[in-house]
Amino acid sequence: MENRWLSEAFKGEVPDGFHGKVGWASPSNIALVKYWGKKGKQIPQNPSISFTLSECLSETFIGFEKAETFGFKFFFDGKENPAFGAKIERFLLDYQAFFPFINQLSLTVESHNTFPHSSGIASSASSMSAFVICLMEIESLLVGPSTGSGTLTKASYFSRLASGSASRSVFPKMALWGATPCFEGSSDEYAVSLENDIHSVFKTYRDAILIVSGETKSVSSRAGHALMEGNPYAPARYAKANENIKNLLAALKAGDLDTFINITESEALQLHALMMCSNPSFILMKPNTLHLINEIRAFREETKTPLCFTLDAGPNVHLLYPDSEAEKVEGFIKNELVKYCVDNRWIADHVGDGPKKLL
């Protein structure tokens, strides 16, 4: 796959006067079976499955023009952000063999998130996938547009190199990233769509993101992944994740909500348990995270409503439920749960259709 895209890369002279602006919005995603631990060049230690979201987006624009030497500026929410810009520039330089034309361009990147940055809502997944898709569109202006399913595979491949979880954000509804014998065509190098392999109920799912904290995480996901290398529970974790992948794929196909709930909540708690067992250990959950978990479980037990929670690498709680339960669950959120959210804030999101062209 890598050799194919190396051979297809535009290596010619960028025409004089080549300039313009492209823009894409790409969503965050919420993993059900978690990706935590990697090897080599952004290769996962175990497969993961995620819902693609709809409202939690990164909106990214790239202005470009031919230049004598490579130029790069990055703006986040209208202000120049050298720290995050350096991460993107490093990605471009590390993988310039795939996009050699950038050496002849000056790029100005403007990005905005519709949700709190660095608080456990996979901001790198949405931002890096949006950036990669913009970059691919600039390339298409030089070589002609790409078509077919291979375009999403290519976007997933390069998004993975920028941020592992970003590989899943380019697909609608649900995606699987990581090689597993349980799903033909799965790969460690890119994600694959599950849209046609899941029961219709999961295409209606909503995700109420309960904002316990909007502050930057005390430990980044990159650092957390690295700590898995010495975690004594890592081998057992990877084995369990593979088992959960098999069982969750079956549940998704069958519409088995009970198994879906059991695996999803277990995976969330395992993720945070691994953080607590690393060296050094760290805790990203807050007291109100635990209050929300207890309230959600009590409500499910009392009402038999098929809702469940999951957590990303942060304190905020994702409350998952079918659209058919929306009125009941949203009443529960407004009456009982918002008191645990910072400034009573929560985001009403749902399963979405993937990236959208803005410009």
Structure characterization notes:
This protein has 359 residues and is α+β, with helices and mostly antiparallel strands. It has 9 helices and 14 strands. The strands form 3 sheets. Strands 1, 4, 5, 6, 7, 8, 9 and 14 form an 8-stranded mixed sheet that branches. The longest helix is centred in the middle third of the chain and has 21 residues, at 123-143. The two termini are 29 Å apart. The model has no long low-confidence stretch (mean pLDDT 94).
What proportion of the residues is helical, as a percent range? 25-40%
CATH topology of the largest domain: Ribosomal Protein S5, domain 2
Q: Main beta sheet, described?
A: 8 strands, mixed
Mean pLDDT: 94
Low-confidence stretches: none
Q: What is the percentage of strand-forming residues?
A: 15-25%
**Element order: H for helix, E for strand:** HEEEEEEHEHHEEEHHHHEEHEE
Q: Radius of gyration from the CA trace?
A: 20 Å
CATH architecture of the largest domain: 2-Layer Sandwich
Shape: globular
N- to C-terminal separation?
29 Å
Structural classification: alpha+beta
Query: Total domains, how many?
Result: 2
Q: In brief, what are we looking at here?
A:
The chain has 359 residues and is of the alpha+beta class. It is built from 9 helices and 14 strands. The model has no long low-confidence stretch (mean pLDDT 94).
What distinguishing features does this structure have?
Alpha-Beta Plaits, 359 residues, 8-stranded mixed beta sheet, Ribosomal Protein S5, domain 2, 4-stranded antiparallel beta sheet, alpha+beta, 9 helices
Secondary structure: elements and pairs:
Elements: H1 2-8, E1 19-33, E2 38-39, E3 43-44, E4 48-66, E5 71-76, E6 79-80, H2 82-94, E7 105-113, H3 123-143, H4 150-162, E8 174-177, E9 191-193, E10 206-210, H5 221-227, H6 234-254, H7 257-277, H8 287-303, E11 308-311, E12 317-321, H9 326-337, E13 346-350, E14 356-357
Parallel strand pairs: 5-7
Antiparallel strand pairs: 1-4, 1-14, 2-3, 4-7, 4-8, 5-6, 8-9, 10-12, 10-13, 11-12
Helix pairs in contact: 3-4, 6-7
